[in-house]
From TrEMBL, chains A, B:
Protein name per UniProt: ArsR family transcriptional regulator
Residues covered by the HTH arsR-type domain: 1-94
PANTHER family assigned to the protein according to its UniProt record, in alphabetical order: TRANSCRIPTIONAL REGULATOR, ARSR FAMILY, TRANSCRIPTIONAL REPRESSOR SDPR
Organism: Actinoplanes italicus
Pfam families for the chain: HTH_5
Keyword Ligase annotated: no
Keywords, sorted A to Z: DNA-binding, Transcription, Transcription regulation
CDD domains, per database record: HTH_ARSR
One Gene Ontology term of the molecular function aspect: DNA binding
Amino acid sequence: MIEDESATDDAFRALAEPRRRAILRLVATDELAAGEIAAAFDVTRTAISQHLTVLREAGLVNERRAGTRRLYRARPEGLAGLRRFLDEMWSDALDVGRRLVEADRAAGEPGLESDVA
Amino acid sequence: MIEDESATDDAFRALAEPRRRAILRLVATDELAAGEIAAAFDVTRTAISQHLTVLREAGLVNERRAGTRRLYRARPEGLAGLRRFLDEMWSDALDVGRRLVEADRAAGEPGLESDVA
DNA sequence: CGCTAACGTTAGCGTCAACTGACAGATCAA
DNA sequence: TTGATCTGTCAGTTGACGCTAACGTTAGCG
């Protein structure tokens, strides 16, 4: 198994929302309470709470309870799937780039090329 | 300037759709025509065409016209913003992780632990 | 010229997602 | 217990998104 493909899907969908990325940036370096996070935005605490739920279910943040407060912190392992996808895309596309350069150079030498017009 | 923040936003939104990620994977190694891409899925060509438009406007694919056909290929530079975000999040969160390990070790030496039941 | 093939574009529809407002649960102090 | 604080959850609305079907456009062939 590849570590659950749906997990990567959840992470992508969660990160598609700009506000959720901003939240993730906030809790990347510091552990913050839901209220503190909500205070940083112009939307309702309800909205932030829902965003935090999405982030938690996507495995992107950790939740820890302390009294009546709930403290959140970024969870780097949740980004593993994203990194895999990006690295794969990146290297593959760059390989093609190199291959095209070679084909371009080869096309200028003898008289044999097969595909494309 | 930071290379336009909205560009990164477009890329994230574009990649939130599983089908668009699949398309991107297809054109990562080979340059394909819209029809060939559409043939790989169970949806209408119209839907694929719209997906390709989104990917192109997000800077994730390149379009090249050859006769009546339009050939698409992945554009690795479009992923630059994503990579920056991921690398930043990753390193920041891991730094915090190390800091926490140190604090944990310092707290674990004498005979005092406080939280959790 | 007409005809066909390969695409993109528009209008319309159904569905999902983000937001607000009102309510409920849990914790701590007096 | 009563009250105040911090927070999640439940309807309900609105806007965005993905899909299909019909149409318009461009390139190549006879």
